[in-house]
TrEMBL record:
Taxonomic superkingdom: Eukaryota
Xref: InterPro entries: F-box-like_dom_sf, F-box_dom
Occurrences of domain F-box (ranges): 8-36
Protein name (Swiss-Prot/TrEMBL): F-box domain-containing protein
SUPFAM superfamilies: F-box domain (SSF81383)
PANTHER family per UniProt: OS03G0653100 PROTEIN (PTHR34591:SF32), OS03G0653100 PROTEIN-RELATED (PTHR34591)
Amino acid sequence: MHLLPDDVLRHLPRRSLAASRCVCQSWRVIIDDRSLLATAALLPCTLRGIFVQIGVPTLSGFFARPSPAGTRRPPIPGVLDLDYLDTNQIEKSLLTIVDHCNGLILLDHHVVNPATRQWTRLPPYPPESPGSDIILDGYHALVFDPAMSPHYQVFLMPYVLRRATVSGQWPPSPLLLHVFSSRTEPEGSTWRWEERSFVREGNATMGTIDEVCSSSGWEPFDTYSVYFRGSLYVHCQNNCVIRITIANHRYRIIKLPGDFVGNQNITVDPYLGKSQEGVYYALVIGLCRLQIWFLKEYQSSYSSYSNSYCGGINGDGGGMETTTMDHEHEWVLKHDADLGPVLAAGYTLNDGGQQWIWHNIDTKKKNKESLVKEEEFEWNDSDDENGSAGEDRQYKGYISQVFGFHPFKEIVFLYDTDTRVVAYHYNRSKVQDLGVLQVRERVSRSFSYTPCWMPDLPGMHN
């Protein structure tokens, strides 16, 4: 029996680790000596709920199902408020969740682990260089994978603010980015930003600076990023994604499918997210037509990186329609359907004790006792199959927002007519009601939250 190395075993999900432990004595010794099963229990492998950002800037609320009776798991005390941070009164009134990655959330000035209530304050942002008034640090992207390393990084992504007097393609090569890393030794007692250079792969760019400046339909506070298999994917200007391969300091521009910028029938912000197989992109056309695209990348374009700790990569294309093709990647159309008939036909409303609940600072004050007793659990979509206390009703509506993807299943979360949140199982064309969410302001961002229970990450405080 060959001995599997530690760095292979430690990336297996808990069930696979438990099965591997029974294979032979040598594997059992490795797993037990290194407490791999205990470590796997701390990784972000469960969906807890959805952070929802209402307006800009303001603190998010949290939309989640209450835990079933009899659950005995550790609570997550830090998701409902962030009063444990070292914020002054002005910062506290402007707290905005900018990004989420594998259990950590990124605020304007902090990286936070809500599960452990630990945090670190980011260093002051680097000043603009003289003459750089056309470029700003428009989007901040968080990078973290505790299965690979306890360290985390924040990337400041530039964008073109106004028309420039200079010509040329955007972005340039090399592209200089400011990066914060918990690996960087602080100068004295403070952290610092470092400048990194990334070289372009391939010939594709976002276009000329003039074209990028004149493109509409994209704002930095409406966009998303994905960290997957050692690469960071960020939705950028002019209907593009920039893929940054961190290890080899390279980047590639990938055109998005569908013309979000030029199509006037697209009124809902698209959503770039991570799900079962990798990087996904959701696009709503008109009132109810939903397209879900999957970025299929070939082995030559992958960096050397292990499969995900929550199930690995399924590269099966399944006979799906494809469009834009590159030598190293292609967008695969996983689903294209008009959900109007499904929504108009009605679905079972989840109005009973199983419905998901909206939590924010106001609801916490009103329901402090019940929220403190709420316990951690993993939402299982089968739990709500027959547990609804609602009834079949006719309900006509439209998709007003994409709330994100389930990180481990073929499910996308949708906001139906600014009233109800539904889970759409696109492989089965089934709509599952989660509950009511009625807010007065526009939903600007939303993130599927997967708690990470690993304590004492580098540079974090209690």
